[in-house]
C-alpha cells in the first residue's frame, strides 16, 4: 500500500489555484439588437449596411476588427466551474478557443485541467468496483497494451458499468493505466495538444512538460521507465521552464516535479537502483553521471551533478548519511 501511495504521489499532479476574472454587466441579446436595427431601418427609410461579424466601423467608415475575446470571457465566466460541468466546459472551449486571444485561451484550458485533476481521485474510486475491474481484466489481452487501456475498444463492452466509466474517461479526457493490478486514471495531456495553436507561449511549454509525463510517466511500479538521456532532458526542460517563467502560477508545480525527478535520478528507487546492497554506487551509474556531467557542464543540472560527484568521491562512492542529506535536501517525500 505504501508503494501505491508513493506511486500515486509521483504521478499525481499538484493541483493549481486559478481564478477566472469575470466580466461584469449584462450583455444584450442578439435578438434585441437585431430588433432595434430593423426599427432603425424602418424609421430612416433606407437599408443600413452592417459590418461583417467580427468587424466594426472605424474611421471614415472603414471596417475595424473586433476582438471577440471579451464576449467569450464573459460567457465563460457565467459557466459554473465544477467537476460536474467538466464536459460542458470542454464543449465551450472547443467552440470558442479559435476566437479567443492567447491569454484567455490559456486561462480556459488551465481551468478545465485543474478541474480534471481535482476530480481524478474521485474518479479513481470507481475502479475499486470488482465488477468493473474484473470485466476489464477479462479482456486484458485485447484492451490493455503496455499497461494502457484502449478506451475505444472498451466502449461497446457488454457491461453497463464498464461502458459508463469508459465514456466518462473519454468525455473528461482521462487515460487509464494499470498499476499492480489496479486501474488508475491520469489526465491525458496529450488530448490537450489540439489547443496548442491558441494558447500562450508559457502554456505551450507547460503542456509540453505535462504531455511528456502523461504519455509515459518517468516512474511506474517503483521503476524508472525512460532512458537516462530522456530522464535528464525532462529534468532540464523543467529547469528551463522555471527559469523562463518564475512568476507563472504553474511554476511551483513544475518545481515539485523537477525536484522529484532529480531526487530519483540521483538516488534511485526500489527497482531502478543507483547503489548496491553494500551501499556503493554501481559502476555503470557512476559512468553515466560522469558522462552527463561532461555533456551538461555549465548548466544548472551540471552544477548539481558536479557537487554530487564531488561528495561521492569524498564518501568513497558510498551512500552515507551525508549523501542521503544531499539527496533529501533536493526533495523530501
In short:
The chain is built from 15 helices and 10 strands. The protein is mainly α and about 325 residues long.
What does this structure look like?
With 333 residues, the protein is mainly alpha-helical. It has two domains: 70-199, no CATH class; 218-330. It contains 15 helices and ten strands. It has helices at residues 2-11, 30-44, 69-78, 86-96, 102-125, 130-138, 140-143, 151-154, 160-171, 201-215, 228-244, 251-267, 283-295, 300-314, 321-330, and strands at 55-57, 63-65, 144-145, 148-149, 174-179, 182-187, 219-220, 223-224, 268-269, 272-273. The strands form five sheets. The chain has a two-stranded antiparallel ribbon. Strand 7 (219-220) and strand 8 form a beta hairpin. Helix 13 (283-295) runs antiparallel to helix 14 (300-314). The longest helix is centred in the middle third of the chain and has 24 residues, at 102-125.
Secondary-structure map:
Layout: H1 2-11, H2 30-44, E1 55-57, E2 63-65, H3 69-78, H4 86-96, H5 102-125, H6 130-138, H7 140-143, E3 144-145, E4 148-149, H8 151-154, H9 160-171, E5 174-179, E6 182-187, H10 201-215, E7 219-220, E8 223-224, H11 228-244, H12 251-267, E9 268-269, E10 272-273, H13 283-295, H14 300-314, H15 321-330
Antiparallel strand pairs: 1-2, 3-4, 5-6, 7-8, 9-10
Helix pairs in contact: 4-5, 10-11, 11-12, 12-15, 13-14
Amino acid at each position: 500500500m505504501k508503494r501505491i501511495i508513493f506511486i500515486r504521489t509521483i504521478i499525481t499532479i499538484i493541483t493549481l489555484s486559478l481564478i477566472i476574472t469575470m466580466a461584469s454587466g449584462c450583455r444584450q441579446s442578439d435578438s434585441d439588437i437585431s430588433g432595434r436595427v430593423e426599427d432603425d431601418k424602418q424609421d430612416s427609410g433606407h437599408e443600413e449596411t452592417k459590418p461583417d461579424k467580427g468587424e466594426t466601423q472605424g474611421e471614415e467608415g472603414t471596417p475595424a476588427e473586433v476582438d471577440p475575446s471579451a464576449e467569450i470571457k464573459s460567457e465563460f465566466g457565467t459557466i459554473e466551474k465544477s467537476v460536474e460541468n467538466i464536459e460542458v466546459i470542454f464543449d465551450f472551449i472547443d467552440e470558442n478557443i479559435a476566437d479567443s486571444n492567447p491569454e484567455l485561451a490559456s486561462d480556459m484550458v488551465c481551468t478545465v485541467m485543474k478541474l480534471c485533476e481535482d476530480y481524478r481521485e474521485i474518479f479513481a474510486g470507481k475502479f475499486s468496483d470488482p465488477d468493473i475491474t474484473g470485466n476489464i481484466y477479462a479482456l486484458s489481452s485485447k484492451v490493455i497494451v503496455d499497461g494502457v487501456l484502449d478506451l475505444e475498444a472498451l466502449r461497446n463492452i457488454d457491461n453497463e458499468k464498464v461502458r459508463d466509466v469508459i465514456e466518462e474517461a473519454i468525455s473528461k479526457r482521462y487515460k487509464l493505466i494499470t498499476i499492480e493490478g489496479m486501474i488508475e486514471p491520469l489526465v491525458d495531456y496529450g488530448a490537450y495538444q489540439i489547443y496548442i495553436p491558441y494558447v500562450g507561449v508559457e502554456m505551450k511549454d507547460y503542456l509540453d512538460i505535462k504531455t511528456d509525463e502523461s504519455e509515459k510517466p518517468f516512474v511506474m511500479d517503483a521503476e524508472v521507465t525512460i532512458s537516462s538521456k530522456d530522464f535528464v532532458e525532462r529534468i532540464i526542460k523543467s529547469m528551463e521552464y522555471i527559469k523562463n517563467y518564475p512568476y507563472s502560477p504553474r511554476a511551483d508545480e513544475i518545481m515539485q516535479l523537477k525536484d522529484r525527478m532529480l531526487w530519483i535520478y540521483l538516488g534511485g528507487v526500489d527497482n531502478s537502483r543507483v547503489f548496491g546492497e553494500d551501499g556503493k554506487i554501481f559502476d555503470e551509474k557512476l559512468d553515466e553521471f560522469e558522462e552527463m556531467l561532461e555533456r551538461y557542464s555549465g548548466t544548472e543540472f551540471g552544477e548539481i551533478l558536479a557537487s554530487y560527484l564531488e561528495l561521492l568521491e569524498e564518501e568513497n562512492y558510498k551512500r552515507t548519511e551525508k549523501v542521503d542529506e544531499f539527496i533529501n535536501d533536493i526533495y523530501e517525500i
